[in-house]
Amino acid sequence: MQNTKKLLSISNLKKYFPVAKSSFFQKEQLYVRANEDISLDIYEGETIGVVGESGCGKSTLGRVLLQLYAQTAGNTMYYGATLDEITPRYVADTLQHLDKYRARLTKAGEKAAELDRQVSAVGEDKADFYLLQERNLARCEEQTCLNAIVKILGGFYAKDEGGKGRELLQKVFDENVKRNKLKTRYQDSRGKYDYCIQQGMDESKAKVGGLKKTLEELREKMEACDRSVAACQQELDALRVANDGDAEFVRYEAMRDSGIDLARLKYSEMRLLRKDLQIIFQDPYSSLNPRLTIGQIIEEGLVTHKFYKHGSPKMREHIVETMKKCGLQEYMLHRYPHQFSGGQRQRVAIARALAVGPKFIVCDECVSALDVSIQSQIINLLQELKEKENLTYMFISHDLSVVRYISDRICVMYLGNIVELGDAKTVFEDPRHPYTVALMSSIPTTDPEALSKERILLEGNIPSPIKPPTGCKFHTRCYMACDKCKRVPPELKEVEPGHFLACHFPERKIDREGNYMFELPKMERKSNRFARKEDAAD
Ligand SMILES: Nc1ncnc2c1ncn2[C@@H]1O[C@H](COP(=O)(O)OP(=O)(O)OP(=O)(O)O)[C@@H](O)[C@H]1O
Q1: Which of 19, 305, 350, 366 stands the most exposed, by the fewest C-beta atoms within 10 Å?
Q2: Helix or strand holding residue 370 (H, E)
Q3: Spacing, Cα 536 to ligand 1 middle (Å)
Q4: What DSSP designation does 263 have?
Q5: Cα(274)–Cα(124) distance, rounded to whole angstroms?
Q6: What region holds the ABC transporter domain (predicted)?
Q7: What residue owns the CA closest to ligand 1's atom 17?
Q8: CB-hemisphere CA count at 13 Å for 312?
């Protein structure tokens, strides 16, 4: 891995969709568990491929990352912008209501400790299910409060004599809010000033002169804010150095997180980040508005995110330039989507995403609906743009050969969980999870040697995500499943550097020659969970 700077960090992410009750008397609320306990870091400049059978939650993951779906639980931290740029309300809330948060934290901690005592009195094995549940909930509450406070306060949570650290952090926040408001006014006035100059007015005109004066005043005010923030930061740094020897301070300081917690942003705050986080959909036919021309489609995002004012000649230039980058000609600007081929439409969808200068793009099956020859063109275009524009992709696809070609790392999902994660080469050449082995085995090949080898066919349907199997969710279709798999859910663990696996049997399953290093038990073959090639042909 070349780049190790995180762009997104997801921890314990969950997304449940509620299922409508089938009768008035149904008490239990059921959920489709589309994503469960997903932890994943995405690094700047990489392409992470997401594979898995239909319905395993790939698209949901992509959309939850972009906050198009609200997540049910977990954290999604974004590092592509700073807290100072966005100044989210949740930071101000935490600083203002710190005492309330601390009280909640202490209460949850005390409750968890008391329940812990009760559990240990009877023994973990014999403890009542509800008692254990209550204890776990109290621990979760404690962790949530701790996360919320410490991520913002850092070491000052542990040691902040006289509340000096908190006061300084509050001042930095307030100054940044002020600065951001001034910046918006500055950009507006700058736009008006530029327009007047373009129209041939000079500074002797009262309107232009007035605008120039306003711009200077605003610039001075912004600089004053910057100076004030820098002074506060200096004081904070001095306090941090003074507390450097304190073990508790250092421990909490390490938990400080400069990322933006996307799930805690308000709608208007998330809109500021939308331009950074874009998506390209699978179907280029339905993802473009048929009533708008290509120019209008690309313009929409630019106007919404206040890049340009409607009708600005500079915007036209920008649109044409973006279209050219995506292999579209200028004369296509006034055409409607129905006048394009599938591949060209997908280029328009790419141009629409690219125009706003994104950092992260979710490509959700973006080549699946296209002809094979066009697929390669679009994939090469995406690769080219990634290098030129320094983009990061999440590439969701069923097509393993496409994923192999484009991805740096691959994440294999099964029924809402990540079961294997690693470098593309490692996952393809040394798959460890039985599900990944079966997926790899399903890739069509023309290699005569590979054709003569045994193939594993994944039989049966994916179980219901509403009531998934207990323990390891794959155990109902796994040839290696034992009693433990039925009871204990495996954790995603690092089996070798950068290679993560959620299986109780992490041993190597394929040798260097590509042969499977296991015997398929006869009993399993009869039950048709995994069938060899000859069986399937029968
Ligand atoms: N908006 C929604 N409301 C309710 N359930 C949903 C919604 N979106 C997805 N689901 C459910 O979540 C589960 C995961 O769906 P998702 O679309 O993420 O799967 P996928 O792996 O992307 O599948 P495919 O590859 O076929 O697109 C499915 O069981 C689906 O029915």
Answers
A1: 19
A2: none
A3: 29
A4: G
A5: 46
A6: 8-440
A7: 59
A8: 20
Find out whether 5 and 43 touch, Cβ atoms under 8 Å: yes
Centroid of ligand 1 to alpha carbon of 355 (angstroms): 28
| ipTM field | 0.96
279 within some domain: no
Binding pocket residue ranges, ligand 1, CB within 6 Å = 17, 32, 34, 52, 54-60, 465
Burial 185-208 (b: 16+ CB within 10 A, else e): ebeebebbbeebeeeeeeeeeeeb
**143 CA → ligand 1 middle, Å:** 30
Give the domain CATH number at 416.
3.40.50.300
CB contact at 8 A, 57 and 241:
no
Of 1-5, 268-272, 411-415, 467-471, which range is least confident?
A: 1-5
Report DSSP letters for 345-364, one per residue: HHHHHHHHHHHT--SEEEEE
Distance 59 CA to ligand 1 centre (A): 7
Please give the Cα distance from 300 to 289 (Å, whole number). 11
> Residue range 228-245: average pLDDT?
91
Residue 75 lies in a domain: yes
Q: Is the pLDDT of residue 534 over 60?
A: no
Please tell me the distance between residue 42's alpha carbon and the centre of ligand 1 in angstroms: 22
The answer to whether residue 524 scores a pLDDT higher than 70 is no
- Three-state SS string across 116-137, please? HHHHHHHCCCCCCHHHHHHHHH
C-alpha distances out from residue 276 to 8, 20, 44, 279, 350, Å: 12, 35, 13, 10, 14
CA-proximal residue: ligand 1, atom 25 (nearest) = 54
- Are 31 and 143 in a shared domain? no
The count of domains in the chain is 3
Residue 168 structural domain: 92-259
Are 378 and 413 in the same domain? no
Q: Based on the domain organization, do 291 and 347 belong to the same domain?
A: yes
- Give the tens place of pLDDT for each residue, 485-517: 888 889 899 999 999 999 988 887 776 666 666
Q: Which of 19, 38, 59, 415 to mutate to test the pocket of ligand 1 (most atoms within 8 A of CB)?
A: 59
Beta-ladder partners of 361: 278, 393
DSSP 8-class letter at 516: B
Residues 342 and 366 in one domain: yes
